[in-house]
Amino acid sequence: MLPDALLALEEEQRRKIASVLVLVAAADGTLVREEMAAIEAAMGAMMLHPESREEVRQLLTEPPELVSVLEGMDQAAIRLALRDGAIVASVDGEYDDAELEILQKIATAGGLSKPKMSKILSWVSKNWKNAAEGRNIIATPIPGDENIL
Amino acid sequence: MLPDTIHKLPRSERFAYALLLAYMTRVDNELTVEEMSMFEQRLGTALLSPKQRDKIRASLKSPPSLETCLAGLGPEAGRLALRDAVLMAAADGTVDEDEREVLDKISSHFGLAPDAINRLLAWTVEGYSWMQSGYELLNDLSR
């Protein structure tokens, strides 16, 4: 939720990261409003050009192959895509097999081994706790917060 | 980046939420890249229509009064806006006196506890630490 290394990347790399997020969101065959909000938030945080955002939104109707998106991505960009992909995959409540599979492919492309990916998922869980704490301070909980805090 | 409940609010309140954040960007009379990134992130979370986004971006140049911003917010939207106003204010690394004063006014308007701002600021610092740990994780996990 705070300023990010994404801003240091070139526009094309950032657009590719957003495209990866679309693929992650679409992996389980459904696209929920929470996932849309997470993708839009990521595109906003990386200050993607409006035209690039529109291109990414178009991918929602016809997602490309992961391998074609990963082609030409820097390792740093792939790893940031993995990080944000793990967040996007988590927003509908849990990781399903298809989401885990695509995250693993991204991790492999980013030079991260399979056992280590669980550390990233664990890191995402901490974000859920942090978000729940924020909502607790402003007395605006969502269902499930009581189990996290 | 987790979306929580902003996207579930009525469209008019999401607009008012974004308007308040636009107001926050101008309180200290400078708009840093970090603040802009945070602003755009929260705008994305609100799932505003393209026209609403254009209006909000236009308001960055001449934001409405704080009272106008607050008038469009219900209790839940107002509390979420306060939380994210704290994030906006802290995005450039410091919360100056003018920003703090505005945050206190918003908190008071929505009837939050007197220590709410301090707790939100501490929470923001935790969030920053969490993000930093994410970078370290990505760097450390190389095979």
Structural class of chain B: mainly alpha
CATH topology of chain A: TerB-like
Q: How many strands appear in the DSSP assignment of chain A?
A: 0
**CATH fold node name of chain B:** TerB-like
Task: Summarize the helices and strands and which ones pair or pack.
The complex is a heterodimer of chains A (149) and B (143).
Chain A: H1 11-26, H2 33-45, H3 50-59, H4 66-70, H5 75-90, H6 97-109, H7 114-137, H8 145-148
Helix pairs in contact in A: 1-2, 1-3, 1-5, 2-5, 5-6
Chain B: H1 11-26, H2 33-45, H3 50-59, H4 66-71, H5 75-90, H6 97-109, H7 116-140
Helix pairs in contact in B: 1-2, 1-3, 1-5, 2-5, 5-6, 5-7
Describe the structure.
The complex is a heterodimer of chains A (149) and B (143). Chain A is mainly α and 149 residues long. Chain A has one domain (5-113): TerB-like (Orthogonal Bundle). Chain A has eight helices and no strands. Chain A has helices at residues 11-26, 33-45, 50-59, 66-70, 75-90, 97-109, 114-137, 145-148. In chain A, α1 packs parallel to α3 (50-59). The longest helix of chain A has 24 residues, at 114-137. Chain A is globular and about 45 Å long. Chain B is an all-alpha fold and 143 residues long. Chain B has a single domain, classed as TerB-like. Helix content of chain B is 69%, strand content 0%. Chain B contains seven helices and no strands. Chain B has helices at residues 11-26, 33-45, 50-59, 66-71, 75-90, 97-109, 116-140. In chain B, α1 (11-26) runs parallel beside α3, α2 runs antiparallel to α5 (75-90) and α5 (75-90) packs across α7. The radius of gyration of chain B is 15 Å and the shape is globular. In chain B, 47% of the residues are buried. The mean pLDDT of chain B is 90.
